[in-house]
Write a structure and sequence with these properties.
Elements: E1 11-23, E2 38-42, E3 45-47, E4 49-56, H1 64-69, E5 77-78, E6 81-88, H2 100-117, E7 123-130, E8 134-141, H3 144-155, H4 184-190, H5 194-205, E9 212-218, H6 237-246, E10 249-255, H7 266-276, H8 288-297, E11 300-311, E12 316-319, E13 321-324, E14 330-333, E15 336-339
Parallel strand pairs: 4-5, 6-7, 6-9, 9-10
Antiparallel strand pairs: 1-11, 1-14, 2-3, 2-13, 4-11, 7-8, 12-15
Length: 341
């Protein structure tokens, strides 16, 4: 007999991780949700959620008895939270905006207070600086004194001292930004504008499992049009948002402009927050207030997982929609991920 013609198809399977904040109308974190409580859709089609882990500072949960009350076990709760303090240097704009540098100094002072009084035992914080290139002033650590010194250095515009391979200290075990970053001249070349700086930083944070909260201390990114209105440039802005989303990095911009100052670039800060799953805060007296709000908001979140199957020759950006079966709950999650080469 003639041999039967065979057919085969190659697929690759990716585990997608989505960090999801769930609150009630008053902003209180909702505890005790499981796989059956979430609806995740790609292109309008539901996918099967295969895992749910709840991340918490433990202040929400308290004792083992409290966990049992929510139908949860210790194994289902992870404690580490990640914060990246990102200083966008303002020295070039300082001559045009009176009080700008003083406002940045206030940010550094209040950050030092927040680090000393509000961080939890399992919080990890890194400090980075951007002027003409990205610099990691302090990698992830729980060392309060080291973080306070790094915040002061970044606020003063001082970069890292060990970006050259020969000067890099031995990296500690555990989460690290430096481990995923280029060094020396390569770092300067690959982060020549702030868009690329954010992309490179997001990729460096990507291997760390969980939600990374980037606290953006600055006045905005991009340019305005001839009418003085900020509009996202898809050549630079879209890849930045896609990379932030792909690596579970949520941006929390804190406007560094002096109080009472409205400016065109604040729309870029609002967009960065909305499109990455963070929140934007403007016109506040003390930086401590929004910093505490960010910490409280991330007191508990869910990390959902599911499998995505793709043909091996496909590549692109997949949008994702997340909601709960209870329509009364508020949900905020990253909006997609990159797939393929």
């Amino acid at each position: 007999d003639e041999p039967q013609e065979s057919f085969s198809e190659e697929l690759y399977v990716t585990e997608v991780l989505l960090d999801v904040l769930v609150t009630d109308k008053s902003g209180q974190v909702i505890i005790g949700l499981g796989e059956e409580d979430f609806v995740v859709e790609e292109d309008g089609e539901p996918v099967e959620v295969t895992g749910v882990t709840f991340y918490s500072s433990r202040q929400l949960l308290g004792s083992k008895e409290a966990l049992e009350r929510y139908g949860m076990t210790v194994d289902e709760v992870a404690e580490d939270r990640y914060f990246i303090i990102f200083f966008q240097q303002q020295r070039r704009a300082a001559g045009e905006v009176p009080g700008l540098m003083a406002r940045q100094k206030e940010a550094a002072r209040d950050l030092a207070t927040w680090i000393a009084t509000d961080l939890q035992a399992h919080d990890l914080v890194a400090v980075v600086n951007y002027e003409t290139r990205l610099e990691v002033v302090q990698d992830f650590t729980r060392n309060i004194a080291a973080l306070q010194e790094a915040v002061q250095r970044a606020s003063d515009g001082q970069g890292a001292e060990h970006n050259w391979p020969s000067r890099q200290p031995a990296l500690e075990k555990g989460p690290s930004l430096s481990r995923g970053l280029p060094t020396g001249k390569d770092l300067r070349k690959k982060t020549g504008d702030i868009y690329k700086g954010l992309q490179v930083l997001a990729r460096a944070a990507g291997p760390i499992r969980g939600r990374k909260n980037l606290v953006f201390i600055g006045r905005g990114i991009g340019e305005t049009n001839s009418f003085g209105v900020w509009q996202p440039d898809s050549r630079y802005y879209s890849p930045t948002i896609e990379t932030l989303n792909d690596n579970n990095v949520a941006v929390y911009p804190l406007d560094v402009m002096p109080l009472g100052t409205r400016h065109t670039l604040e729309n870029s800060l609002s967009a960065l927050a909305t499109d990455s799953g963070g929140t934007f805060t403007r016109q506040f007296t003390s930086f401590t207030t929004p910093l505490r709000q960010i910490s409280e908001e991330n007191g508990g979140y869910y990390l959902l997982s599911y499998q995505s199957r793709r043909e091996t020759d496909k590549a692109g950006y997949q949008k994702v929609k997340v909601k709960t079966r209870n329509p009364e709950l508020e949900v905020r999650a990253r909006q997609g991920y990159l797939f393929g080469e």
